[in-house]
Every structure is written in structure tokens, then in C-alpha cells.
Design a protein that fits this description.
The chain is α/β, with parallel strands linked by helices and 382 residues long. It contains 13 helices and 15 strands.
């Protein structure tokens, strides 16, 4: 049996007719840059997240960049984030000219550890602490970071919060007795619509959410080279617009997002059940979902003994899998100037050596999941 890590073709077949019509309408109109489709998806994403404003941009990477530009982060400033994430998180900080300050992760959720954020701020010299402008938590793999604690720290130190929600659209956390969705909590929420995401377009696309009207206006200017009106530039911005074709794709897909997330959650629950029944919990650790959080499983990540051996076995038996972030950001060659050393962030480094992604997409069938578990058991039995 072949089980792909991700199969977008099955999803596409269920919405093919509607998608073809939506794309045809844009092509017939010959209006490809911004316009009504972009405005509509911005309004729909804002509503979906529970944010007041959303601004469509070229990618999740540019969403992170534009959020920092909107809050006027400058060279010499510092932004706290995690070393266990996709490159764009720290890359966007460096592109601004600022410095990422890495903080280790919670080993259970793979998200940034708030207590270690607090410890970092407490030990920084006063002049360095004064240059810290923001915290950029990543809601990794589809589960929100501990935003209650992160917001408390940000308030205590007068910092902005930029949520990197590239993998977490629809994820939520209960705060003060109320469920809050990712991208409605911090000063900014940054979304990726890369095709492999839970809500993916047909290429690159992204969104920035905010509850601040002035930030929203500035973001809309920054994404068109800082124009206040045509050929009049209030800021030095970038070419960072979401195009109408991608907006049309997202408008077709968004109404299905909650049901697709439910499918992923159902598959994750079946994995957990079958792992336990197969007696595998001494060899692998399924992802932990905090009881106060809605995990949308953009990826299904296990910790595994002899991870690389298991990966090879699954691949040989037709099962798609992937290692996310095998080298933490503080150890990447391009960030050598930051002085990162092996052992500096032990939990992040351990995760990079132990974790493996298994198929979890909503169209995955129970018999496919059973086959994956069967092959994992076969590997550890041998």
C-alpha cells in the first residue's frame, strides 16, 4: 500500500467544479491585482480568526516581514523567537536588520517556552533589554503557543507580539474562559497559504491580521511600495500584494476549513488509539494536545526511537514521511554571526533529532492509518 504524506488531488476533486468557475471568472475579468476578491477574502479571514482587520500579502514570509515593518522595527532592534521552526521566522527578523534572540522550546508542544522568555529578559543587560521590541511565538504544527503567559510577559516588558500562525489557521486557545483563535491574540497574526498548509492556495499567498486600524492602513500601504496614493509614497515598502487568482482559490476553500480540520483531528485520534493498542508507546510519543487548545494538526509529529531507521523503513514500504527542521536555526550556517553553539538550546536540538511527520491529511482513510501503524510496529518488532 502507498500512503502519501500529503495528497492534495483528492481534496481538489471535491471542489473542482466550483474552483474552475472561480478561476474562470477572474480570467474573464482580466483583473489580477488586488480588487474585490482580495477584499472579500480579507474580510472572511478576519471574521474566521476573530480579528478586526486582515491584509492579503504575497506569502507567509512577507507577512512576517511586513508586520515588523508596520511596527517600525529597525536595525539594532531585537525580536525574541524560537530556534525550532521554519527559516522564515528568524529570516524575516534578519531581513529587517534586527537580531533574533532565540529561546528554547517546551518539549511537550514544541512551542516556545514562556518561562525561558522571562528568564532571558531578566538576565539581559538593561541596554540590550531596551532594544527588544517584540516576541514572535510560532504556533508550531497547528497548536497555539502559551499565549496567556506570552501576553503577560509582553505587557510587563512593553513588547509587541507577532503570532507566526503559518501552520495554525483555525487553531485556538482558551484564555480567561474564552476561546481565542490564532491571529486574533497578538498585535499581528501572520498566515501562510502555501499549498501544503491546511488552507493552501495554488502558489504563494499570505495574510496579516491585526486589531489595530492604523496598523491595518499602514500594512495596506507597505504592501504596495508604501504608497499612500498612486505614485505618492509615505513609506519605503515592498511589492507584497495577494493577487486575485489566489484570493479566488481561498474563497472556494475557506468554507471547508473547519471540516478539514475535524478530519485531521479524527485521524490524529485514530493514530493515538492504534499506537496504544499496538503497544508502541515505549518507542514513539504521539503529539500532545493541551486540553485548553484546539490543535488543527497541520502536521502530525511523533517522537521516535531510532528516528532515522524508522524513516527509512516507512519510505521503503511506501509511506510518506518527513523530518521537519533537522538543523535548528541557531546552528544554520547563515546565522553563524549570532554565535549559536551546539547544546545551547537542548530541547530544540533534541526535537530536531527525534521527530518525524506522518500522513494526517483529512482524506486519509482508516485502513491507510492502520497500515502506517502496522509498519511502525513491524519496524520496532524487528
Amino acid at each position: 500500500m502507498n500512503v502519501p504524506l500529503l495528497d492534495l488531488k483528492g481534496q481538489y476533486q471535491t471542489i473542482k467544479a466550483e474552483m474552475t468557475q472561480a478561476l474562470s471568472d477572474v480570467i474573464e475579468a482580466q483583473a489580477f491585482i488586488l480588487g474585490p476578491n482580495v477584499e472579500k477574502i480579507e474580510a472572511e479571514i478576519a471574521r474566521f480568526c476573530g480579528a478586526r482587520h486582515a491584509v492579503g500579502v504575497t506569502s507567509g514570509s512577507d507577512a512576517l516581514l511586513l508586520a515588523q515593518m508596520a511596527m517600525d522595527i529597525k536595525p539594532g532592534d531585537k525580536v525574541i523567537t524560537t530556534p525550532y521552526t521554519f527559516f522564515a521566522t528568524a529570516g524575516s527578523i534578519c531581513r529587517i536588520g534586527a537580531e533574533p534572540l532565540f529561546v528554547d522550546i517546551d518539549p511537550d508542544t514544541f512551542n516556545i517556552d514562556p518561562q525561558k522568555i522571562r528568564a532571558l529578559l531578566e538576565r539581559l543587560p538593561e541596554d540590550a533589554r531596551g532594544r527588544v521590541k517584540a516576541i514572535m511565538p510560532v504556533h508550531l504544527y497547528g497548536q497555539c503557543a502559551d499565549m496567556t503567559e506570552i501576553l503577560a510577559i509582553a505587557q510587563a516588558y512593553d513588547l509587541r507580539v507577532i503570532e507566526d500562525a503559518a501552520q495554525a489557521l483555525g487553531a485556538a486557545i482558551t484564555m480567561d474562559g474564552r476561546e481565542r483563535r490564532a491571529c486574533s491574540i497578538g498585535d499581528f497574526g501572520c498566515i501562510s497559504f502555501f499549498p501544503s498548509k491546511n488552507l493552501g492556495c495554488f502558489g504563494d499567498g499570505g495574510m496579516v491580521t491585526t486589531n489595530d486600524e492604523q496598523f491595518a492602513k499602514k500594512l495596506k500601504s507597505l504592501r504596495v511600495h508604501g504608497q499612500a496614493q498612486t505614485y505618492h509614497h509615505a513609506y519605503i515598502g515592498i511589492n507584497g500584494r495577494l493577487d486575485a487568482l489566489q484570493a479566488a482559490v481561498l474563497l472556494v476553500k475557506l468554507p471547508h476549513l473547519d471540516s478539514w480540520a475535524a478530519g485531521r483531528q479524527k485521524n490524529a485520534a485514530l493514530y493515538a488509539k492504534l499506537f496504544a493498542e499496538a503497544g508502541l508507546l515505549d518507542c514513539i510519543t504521539p503529539p500532545l494536545r493541551r486540553p485548553d487548545r484546539n490543535h488543527v494538526y497541520n502536521q502530525f509529529i511523533i517522537r521516535a526511537k531510532n528516528r532515522d531507521g524508522l524513516k527509512a523503513h516507512l519510505t521503503a514500504n511506501g509511506i510518506g514521511n518527513a523530518i521537519y527542521y533537522p538543523l535548528c536555526l541557531h546552528l544554520q550556517e547563515c546565522f553563524a554571526f549570532l554565535g549559536g553553539q551546539p547544546g545551547q538550546f537542548p530541547e530544540a536540538e533534541k526535537a530536531s533529532q527525534e521527530t518525524l511527520a506522518l500522513p494526517v491529511f483529512p482524506e486519509l482513510q482508516p485502513e491507510q492509518i492502520a497500515y502506517v501503524v502496522e509498519q511502525i510496529k513491524d519496524f520496532y518488532t524487528k
